[in-house]
Amino acid sequence: MTGTSPKHDVFHAIADPTRRRLLHLLVDREMPVTVISSHFPMSRTAVSKHLRILSDAGLVKERKVGRETRYRLEPEPLLELKRWLAFYDRFWDNRLSVLKHLVEADDANEPETAVKPIKPQAMDPLSLD
């Protein structure tokens, strides 16, 4: 591992729902850990550990302002995730295209009559018919 590579990768960092919530919280503004902690039912130490993992992955930056540490979102590392997901988009696009084709083909073969709901019939539990 080189000195410039993160200790944690983006995929590991966002794997935890708490860390994803932290990122969401930091989207619009920089916040001190005391304010961030008030949004979570855990200790400030636990929140700080999550922030450290996000920081190690390059997803948040911290800066000292007096005695407090403030955190802000760094979205650039999320591009790695976006590129990875984009590769798999073609599979979804293909499946959605096939589904669209099947639905449209089915609609073209249906008569233009109103659809009547099917009424459930009472069954004799001893009958196998």
Automatic annotation (TrEMBL):
<dbReference type="Pfam" id="PF12840">
    <property type="entry name" value="HTH_20"/>
</dbReference>
<dbReference type="GO" id="GO:0003700">
    <property type="term" value="F:DNA-binding transcription factor activity"/>
</dbReference>
<feature type="region of interest" description="Disordered">
    <location>
        <begin position="109"/>
        <end position="129"/>
    </location>
</feature>
<dbReference type="InterPro" id="IPR036388">
    <property type="entry name" value="WH-like_DNA-bd_sf"/>
</dbReference>
<dbReference type="InterPro" id="IPR001845">
    <property type="entry name" value="HTH_ArsR_DNA-bd_dom"/>
</dbReference>
<protein>
    <submittedName>
        <fullName>Winged helix-turn-helix transcriptional regulator</fullName>
    </submittedName>
</protein>
<feature type="domain" description="HTH arsR-type">
    <location>
        <begin position="1"/>
        <end position="93"/>
    </location>
</feature>
<dbReference type="InterPro" id="IPR036390">
    <property type="entry name" value="WH_DNA-bd_sf"/>
</dbReference>
<keyword id="KW-0804">Transcription</keyword>
<dbReference type="GO" id="GO:0003677">
    <property type="term" value="F:DNA binding"/>
</dbReference>
<dbReference type="InterPro" id="IPR051081">
    <property type="entry name" value="HTH_MetalResp_TranReg"/>
</dbReference>
<dbReference type="InterPro" id="IPR011991">
    <property type="entry name" value="ArsR-like_HTH"/>
</dbReference>
<keyword id="KW-0805">Transcription regulation</keyword>
<keyword id="KW-0238">DNA-binding</keyword>
